[in-house]
Structure formats: C-alpha cells, structure tokens
Write a structure and sequence with these properties.
87 residues, alpha+beta, 3-stranded mixed beta sheet, 3 strands
Length: 87
C-alpha cells in the first residue's frame, strides 16, 4: 500500500495541504486531501468552503479523471476521491 500512497503523492498536482491520505482495500483506492484555503477567504465559513470545493471539482475534473484512469490501470482498483476543508 505504501507504493500506492507514494504514487498518488508524486502524481497529484499541488492541490492539497500536505500529502493526500490514501486507503486501499481489495476493490478500491480512496484518496482524501485537504484543499488549501486562500488567505483572502474566510476559513471558518461553511459557504466559502462549499464554494471552494465545488470550484475545485469543476476545474480539476479532467486531471483527476486522468490520474484515476492511470491508477486503475496500474493498480487494478477503482479510485474514489474525497475533499475535506482545512480548519
């Protein structure tokens, strides 16, 4: 599993604060990362966080799908992603 987590850390663009958490079971790879909070944003605002996550999902969809396709071919498991917001 370390190999898979390292691959995602190396393959993922600089989207997250730190390395994403990668959990692997027999059928799926789950990748969870915390998005960066811009200094100009209100970090404590749930509305701002929801908007930031929605924008990130739209803007990165093609790249995320490409990475997921590569991982699925390489590791033989489906890939799921989740985004948490920074505190």
């Amino acid at each position: 599993m370390t190999n898979i987590a390292e691959w995602f850390t190396g393959r993922s663009p600089d989207w997250f604060t730190g390395s994403p958490e990668v959990t692997v079971d027999r059928e799926e790879i789950l990748v969870v990362g915390r998005l960066r909070v811009p200094d100009s944003d209100s970090a404590g605002s749930d509305s701002a966080a929801e908007g930031r996550i929605a924008r990130w999902r739209e803007e990165t969809r093609r790249d995320r799908m490409k990475i997921a396709d590569e991982a699925e071919e390489r590791f033989g498991r489906k890939v799921a992603r989740s985004t948490g917001r920074s505190a």
